[in-house]
Amino acid sequence: MRQTDSRPLVAPLPAPSMTLDGRFRCFTPRQVLAAFLVLIAVVPLVLPEFYVTLLNYIGLYAMVALGLVLLTGVGGLTSFGQAAFVGLGAYTTAVLTTSTDLPGWLAWAGGSPWLALGVGLLITALVALLVGSLTLRLSGHFLPLGTIAWGISLYFLFGTMDILGGHTGMSGIPPISIFGWQLDEGHEIYYLIWIFLLAAALTTQNLLDSREGRAIRALKGGMVMAEAMGVNTSRSRMIIFVIAALHAAASGWLYAHMQRFVNPTPFGVHIGIEYLFMAVVGGAGQVWGAIVGAGAITIMKQWLQDVLPAVLGATGNFEVIVFGLLMVLILHRARDGIWPWLARLVPVRGNQIEIDHAAAALPRREMPTRGEVILEARNVTRRFGGLVANNDMSLHVEAGEILALIGPNGAGKSTMFNQLSGVDTPTSGEVLFRGKSIAGHESREIAHLGMSRTFQHVKLLPKMSVLENVAIGAHLRGNRGVIPSAWRLDRAEEARLLAEAARQIERVGLGSHMHDEAGSLALGQQRILEIARALASDPCLLLLDEPAAGLRLKEKQTLGDLLRKLRAEGMAILLVEHDMDFVMGLVDRVVVMEFGQKIAEGLPEDVQKNPAVLEAYLGGVE
C-alpha cells in the first residue's frame, strides 16, 4: 500500500519498542494495520456492553466524518449538511422495512434491510447529484451557506411527512440479518459497523492514491491549474460530494437498524456541525483522522456529560459550554488535527512510491512538422468595460521555435496569454490552435488538443511529492474512473502514468528530487517542475508565463538549456517574460506589446534596435 502526502495509513499504536542500539524501531504500515485490526476484533470480547455501544457510535460518526475528510479536508468544499444524508439513508430503510403498503414498483425491496441499503444509496446518489448541481456552483462563503440551506430543508422534510412518522418518528425497524443470524445486540452489529468503516477508509485511501485522487487533491491547488492539466474540476467536485453523501447514507442505514427507531432529531444542522468538527479535529486532510476525530469528540462529550453534572449540578448545559471551549483550544493548539500529533508517536516507515520503469509507454501524439504554424491569434481584442486590455493583437507560433511575448508592465501580456490558453475569451477576434478555433473553449479541452502551460505564480501541491505533482500533468492521458481506483483495478494504467511522470522528471534534470515534497524545492526547481508537469501531458505547444522570474543566474542558464533542448525536439514554445537578457539570447522571434497593442515583431537583434521598443522600455532614444 502506497502512502500519500507523508501520512501514515492506519491508526496509532502504543509507543514503539527500542532496538538494541537504543533507536526506535519503525513499523511498516502493514504491521500497524494488522495490529489495529486485531485490536478492533478483540475489543467487544473484553469490554462491557456500554463501551461497545460507544464504539458503535464512534464507527457510525467516523463514516460521516470520513466523507467530510474527502469533501472538506482534501477537496476544500465545506459542508454543514451531511447529517441530512445520514437521515436519508436511515429513513429510506425505515420505510422499506416497516411499511406494508409499498407501491408495486417498490414492493420488491420491502422487508429486506439489504435491499433497502441499495435503494437508499441510489436515492442518496440521485439527491446528491441534484443538490450538488445547484450547491457546487457556489463559491466562497456562499457554498457552506448553501449546504446549511438544503440541510435544514431535508431536516424539516423528515419531520413533516406523515409517511415518515413526523417528529414522533418511526419504530419497529427490524435488525439486520446475515445468513439467518440477527444482529440485534450492540456487540453483534459492532463488527458490521467497523467492517463498513474500514472498507470505506481503505477504498478512500486507494482512491486518493490514484489518477482520480490526484485530480481531487489538485482542487486545492487552484481550479485554473487543474483545468489546464486536463482535469474536469466540476466532475471531481461532484464525485467527492456524492461519495461523502453515500458514506453518510450507509451510516444512517446502520444507525437505523442498530437503534430500531428513527426520528428527525439526529439529522439536524447542529449535528452536521459536529460531524465537521470531527473531521477537522481528527485531521481534515487525513483519512484515518476521521476515526480519531469521531472517537475524540464522542468520548469527550460522554465524559463531560458524566462528570460536569456531578461537579456543577444537574441544571444548565455546562457540558455544551465546556465542550465549545475545549474545541476552541484544540483548534488553536492543533490546527492540523490530532492525527499528525498521534502519528509522530508511532514511527511508521513511509512507503516510497514504486516506479515500474518497464511499464509500457503511454501513446504519444503525432508532432507537427518543423515550421508548421501551431498557434495563431488573429485580431484579438479584449475589453473589460471601458478598458481595452488587448487591441487587435495578432501573432503566430511555429513548431520548433521559441517566440517571446514581451512588453513593459501593464502592456497586456498576461491578458493575451489568458486568451491564448483558454482561461479567458476574446471580445472579438479569433485564436486558432492547429487550425481549430479554440476561443471560448474550456482549458481542459485545449489541453487535450496538445497545449500545456506553466504559471506566473507557481501553482504546485506543496505537500505532494515531485512525482505526484508531475503525474497530475499526465491526467488526461488516462481513463480509469473512480470505482477501479477505489478497488485498485487501475494498477496497470497507474504504473504507466507514474513511469511517464518519472521520465519527464528525469528529462528536466530533477531526478534526484523525485520523491521529495514539491514545497521543499527552491523556486527555480519549482518552475522546472511546472515544466515537467506540462510535458507529462504530451503537448506540442508550451506556454510559459514568466518562467525566469525570481531565478538566479545559474538557474536561468539551466532553464535556457532545457528550453533549447525542447525546441530541438520540435516543441513550439511561447514565452512571456520580463528578463530581456534571458529572452534575447534564447528565442527565435519576439513580439513586443505596449498598451495592449503590438508595436514590434521580428528577430531579437532587430527588435532590440527598434525605436518604438526603446521608447516603450527606456522612455526615449538617445
Structural notes for this entry:
- Among the domains are: 49-345, Orthogonal Bundle (ABC transporter involved in vitamin B12 uptake, BtuC); 372-450 and 570-622, Rossmann fold, CATH 3.40.50.
- Helix content is 52%, strand content 12%.
- The protein contains 23 helices and 14 strands.
- Strands 10-11-12-7-13-14 form a 6-stranded mixed beta sheet, with helices on both faces.
- Strand 13 (589-594) and strand 14 form a beta hairpin.
- The protein is elongated, with a radius of gyration of 29 Å.
Features:
single chain, 622 residues, alpha/beta, Rossmann fold, four-stranded antiparallel beta sheet, 23 helices
List the helices and strands and how they pair.
Layout: H1 29-46, H2 49-74, H3 82-98, H4 113-135, H5 142-160, E1 170-171, E2 176-178, E3 181-183, H6 186-208, H7 211-217, H8 223-228, H9 233-259, E4 261-262, H10 269-283, H11 289-312, H12 318-333, H13 338-345, E5 373-384, E6 387-398, E7 402-406, H14 413-421, E8 428-433, E9 436-437, H15 443-449, E10 451-453, H16 466-473, H17 482-486, H18 491-507, H19 523-535, E11 541-545, H20 553-568, E12 572-576, H21 580-584, E13 589-594, E14 597-602, H22 604-608, H23 611-618
Parallel strand pairs: 7-12, 7-13, 10-11, 11-12
Antiparallel strand pairs: 1-4, 2-3, 5-6, 5-8, 8-9, 13-14
Characterize this entry briefly.
The protein is an alpha/beta fold and 622 residues long. Helix content is 52%, strand content 12%.
**Global shape:** elongated
Low-confidence parts: 1-24
Average pLDDT across residues?
89
**What proportion of the residues form beta strands (DSSP E)?**
5-15%
How many extended strands?
A: 14
CATH topology of one domain: ABC transporter involved in vitamin B12 uptake, BtuC
End-to-end separation in angstroms reads: 68 Å
Cα-atom Rg, whole angstroms? Answer: 29 Å
CATH architecture of one domain: Orthogonal Bundle
Helical residue percent band: 40-55%
Spatial order of the strands in the main sheet? 10-11-12-7-13-14
